[in-house]
Amino acid sequence: MKQLDELTKGVFKYNPIFYLVLGLCPLLAVSTRVDNALGMSLGVFFVLVSSNVIISLFRHWIPSQVRIPCFIVVIASFVTIVELFMHGYAPELHERLGIYLPLIVVNCIILGRAEAFASKKPVFDSFLDAIGMSIGFTLGIVGIALCREALSTGKIAIFGYTIIPTFTPSPSVMMLLPPGAFLTIGVIMALINYRSIRKEGR
Amino acid sequence: MKRIVGIAIPLIIICIISGAALTASHDLTKGRIEMVEQEKINESLSIVFPGASFTETDDYYSAAMGGEEIGYAFIAEGKGYSGTIKTMVGLYPNGTISRIYVISQSETPGLGTRIAEPDFTNQFKGKRIGDVRLRQDGGVIDAITGATISSRAITDTARERAEVVMNETTR
Is B18 within the bounds of a domain? Predict the structure, then answer.
């Protein structure tokens, strides 16, 4: 039961985006389209799970004085591996994610989980934590991408298939630009906080 | 001293292991990545000169149809609003553009990315090199609203490279 908590805490209670407020750089940049958001989530999922498992596996063995360089080397290697394979096997996605793919290295969710969780907890717990956090990140970024894509292009198309046609008759380009990302995140965060404050207050 | 070694050795081992892992994945994906990149170039060549066959020279591709040279294709590369824009340009020997095709770009989605769409690139068809400028710069190309920098980047790099290739081929 406790282990299930490690999985679900990343999804809701400690959602990396809305509660921990980490990884906002890729969130702002790549949430313009649902496609891109899913691709980014896939990259983060792979890197987060692998680095959490590896770091947890070697946690007794990494001297605490050099733990950050060790984490970064491990994380950067996995990111580069993802980038190479994506370039070869999903070139379109690779092109669309552009610079934000290598920037997963400095995504604070990954280093944050390595430092706060994987370096202290057993392998299986770290594995579950990584999966939970990835799902939390995916929910956040895809949710925001859904809002932005619907409002900026007037429809939602995932991998070429139009899911929701003509969502809004007058799409606004602003939602595609950085202000749109900030607005969307701000509004969603406000709603979540409003809910949790009300829950506590009553 | 012993303490430092104790700290350094794990870090060194981790670096060696990840170096090996990276080398392995580089080797595994190298052929595939080269193929993907070459495919992109081939695809863009056949868009600027459909049905032609190409021979690569040091600076450009010479397009031929039925054994006769019909034009030149080359890659124009320049800095856009948020990264490099790579464009394939087809040029007829008389100094007019056959077509342009954007190979890669990383402009603002929804604004700058529209430089890759036919509405914009079709404007270049049949234009003389000297006229390939934005309208506000004294040319005949209409910039995309809200993406003047991207439009100017692609227009200017295409013209500049076309002039260079033109000089080389007429010499």
Answer: no
Residue B95 burial (10 A CB sphere; 0-12, 13-18, 19+): middle
- To test the contact with chain A by mutation, choose from B15, B36, B43 the residue with the greatest count of A C-beta atoms within 10 A, namely B36
Q: Complex ipTM, two decimals?
A: 0.76
> For B144, which DSSP code?
P
- At B148, list the tokens: 């003047």
In a domain, B103, yes or no: yes
Q: How many residues does chain B have?
A: 171
Which chain B residues touch A152 with a CB distance below 8 Å? 110
- Domain spans of chain A, in order of start: 2-201
Please indicate if any CB of chain B lies within 8 Å of the CB of A64.
no
The whole-angstrom separation of Cα A63 and Cα A117 is: 16
DSSP bridge partners of B63: B54, B71
Range of the domain at B117: 53-170
**Residue B59 has which token pair?**
């600076």
pLDDT tens per residue across span B83-122: 889 999 999 988 899 999 998 887 876 778 888 888 899 9
For residues A89 and A129, the answer to whether their CB atoms sit within 8 Å is no
Q: Do B29 and A87 touch (CB under 8 A)?
A: yes
Residue B124 lies in a domain: yes
Inspect the interface and report whether the beta carbons of B146 and A173 lie closer than 8 Å. Answer: yes
- With respect to residue B142, please indicate whether it lies within any of the assigned structural domains: yes
Q: Which token pair is A93?
A: 């996605």
State the amino acid at position B42 in one-letter form: N
